[in-house]
Design goal:
- With 221 residues, the chain is of the alpha+beta class.
- The chain folds into two domains: 19-131, no CATH class; 137-219, no CATH class.
- The chain is 28% helix and 23% strand.
- It has helices spanning 19-28, 41-46, 51-64, 132-148, 157-161, 194-198, 215-219, and strands at 30-31, 67-68, 88-90, 94-100, 109-112, 118-121, 125-129, 151-156, 169-170, 180-183, 188-192, 206-211.
- Strands 3-4-5-6-7 form a five-stranded antiparallel β-sheet. A five-stranded antiparallel β-sheet has the order 8-12-11-10-9. It has a two-stranded antiparallel sheet with strand order 1-2.
- A hairpin with a 4-residue loop joins strand 10 and strand 11 (188-192).
- Helix 1 (19-28) packs across helix 4 (132-148).
Length: 221
């Protein structure tokens, strides 16, 4: 199936996701028709964009283009619909491309960086997760944690910075870079550092603590 052919609105999670994320995409996601990026190859390479970068955007579009997922707990919900567009950058700085339009007006955009990381770009590039898979895994884990937690505590600024994560272990599937998830004895912690780092705004640091989780809440999905 090519990118501009009709697609079923029933979303299917791409291979490589955890069972939790696969179920999240299938149950809560909607797949919209997606633009065929490759049809712009000649025009975009005419602007000086390397063909390899056009193909990288097209590969993202093949995997994620047209997928709408529920809002994220931070970043005003994240992209409305995942989708690539015109790459920007240079050989020296590296090439990035948009990952999808914001749901609301924001001080930054969502981008895929030179190394494939999913992140935000304002006056500086800030990778949130090592891949888009990691971003989707984080959405799935947040939905799962909200469903199973007995308590949800939100910390901001200095209180979030002072959070003691001793005894916690990182959750690997979210592939955290600037944003991370941590698993403790009976709780999960999401640490959102992207705006604090990317906007030089430490007051924007935020942590969500999902408490009272049993074994299924901690590891299931």
């Amino acid at each position: 199936m090519t990118a501009d052919e009709p697609v079923s609105p029933v979303a299917v999670g791409p291979g490589g996701l955890s069972r939790r994320a696969q179920a999240f995409v299938a149950v809560d996601g909607i797949r919209f028709p997606r633009q065929d990026i490759r049809q712009h190859c000649d025009a975009w390479t005419g602007y000086g964009i390397p063909a390899a970068e056009v193909e990288r955007a097209a590969a993202f579009q093949d995997r994620w283009g047209g997928l709408a997922l529920p809002p994220a707990p931070f970043y005003e919900g994240g992209p409305r619909i995942l989708g690539a567009d015109l790459p920007e950058g240079s050989a020296a700085a590296g090439w990035s491309f948009p990952a999808g339009d914001c749901r609301v007006s924001m001080a930054y955009g969502f981008m895929i960086g030179p190394d494939g990381a999913f992140g935000i770009h304002a006056h500086r590039w800030t990778p949130l997760h090592a891949t888009t898979d990691g971003w989707v895994e984080s959405l799935a884990l947040a939905a799962h944690a909200r469903r199973w937690a007995k308590t949800v505590t939100r910390l901001t600024g200095e209180a979030a910075a002072a959070l003691d994560l001793g005894g916690y272990e990182p959750v690997p599937e979210v592939q955290g870079v600037t944003d991370t998830w941590w698993r403790g004895r009976d709780s999960l912690v999401a640490l959102y550092r992207g705006e604090a780092v990317g906007l030089d705004a430490p007051q924007c640091l935020e942590a969500h603590i999902y408490g009272g989780l049993d074994a299924r809440g901690l590891h299931g999905g």
